[in-house]
Amino acid sequence: MFKLNGNEEIGKYLSELIIQKYESYRQFSKKCIEAEGRDREDERLIDNMSNRISQIVNGKKSVQLSDIPVFTRLLEISCEEILSAGECFGPTSNHLTNYDIAFTKEQDIWETYIHREDKIILNTDEYGKTIIDYALEFKNFELLKYFMEHGYIWFVGEVNGGKESDMWTLFDGGTRIERRPVGEEDIRWHFYPSDEFMQSGRLTRIAKDELQYTLTGSDDLRRKMIVLAIENDEVELLEQLRAREIFPLYLLNFNPYHRVLMDGTDVDSYYDKGVVICIAGAGEEVLNYFLKTFEITNQFGRTDKFLFPYMTNLLNYLIKNDSPYSEKILNCSIEHNLYAYKRLKRLVANATRERVKYFMRFWNKEDCQNEEEKKRYKQYKETYQKEEKERVKENIYFYGCDNNVIAFMDVCGENKFAMVTTIVHTNESSSDKSIQSLIEELNRLYDKICNIKGTIPALSDCKQIDYINV
Q1: Is 233 helix (H, G, I), strand (E, B) or coil?
Q2: Residue 77 dihedral angles phi and psi, to the nearest 5°
Q3: How far apart are CA 40 and CA 60, in angstroms?
């Protein structure tokens, strides 16, 4: 049973599929004419068919019963998918495929497919998709949760003692499903292109275990799974997926000096508007999870505390839509900004004091012979303190288009002063006086953090989330 959508929804969905597969409506019209056994070179037939396709995709005409066999065959989709405008999916053949298994809800079928001798579950299909791709697309949460609970797949690795090496594989997924013994027919050649550390690329023989390579290093799959966990109020699963965390925070925790993060994995590239919108529409239990701070400890033993890095985006969304949770999130954000301000201020002061101490280590006040020398000593120290404080401030960095991550590191002699954390602000306002008062307090603390550096950094030119009523 599925819901029959209107002509506009069906037309819009078909339009995307047609353009994606055939590039133009006219090309698709020729294919339709050919599939019906008519002359695809007949301009009159092409014009008539193009006109009818145009009316269908624009929602002015409905899909006819006679269109269904042709459309399903040419677009390689089911009739349910067409008539529901992509909200309902059904098997398109009698041969079991990744598509079919990802659609079913029956556990015995999943287990049978996993334990097939040929291990076809590990391979991508002719469209380059694995069973996990399809399960996420169809929102088959039961299948994905079952696979995770039984250890067949995972989206996040394990941390062992905060070792640096774990940082690079923490957000790599994987599978414990073992493929059949590898033969020559299973080997493919993969070319890894050169990078700045290599003079040339390298060609490597690897087994065709596409599911493993799909899961490894694909944060996009993790984010899609996070959305499903939010929609199903699975807080425990959100913990397992480390839903509040992103890889750049680990990289900055290891080295706050990263102005341009490696491989383009900067703070903004991990932002997903869909995740933020999903959080905003979630229940109180899920929102409470995203309000909690979390800690990251690097191999040197330094621990940094963070809030969800896109709290600014979430807060903007909630205030704009007069959410009843705005007050709670504002209070949590204020508390965290206060922590960030106090810690940064203390580190800057300690780093400045250490620098002055280091540069004046050969000049002791006790060695001053008279008042004139004591006066020069005092002036010299004050000048050094002023100059070094300004130099220390240069080691404060902001990351993200919303300046939502702040980092500091200063090294003097054998001493290192460093921190990384998230900070929150909002450009929204509220007619509710109590909410507006909290907004002003939050932004005041944000400005104080920025002013430690001496200037408030300009916000980068980036796309903000669209405000859609939850």
Answers
A1: coil
A2: -135, 170
A3: 25
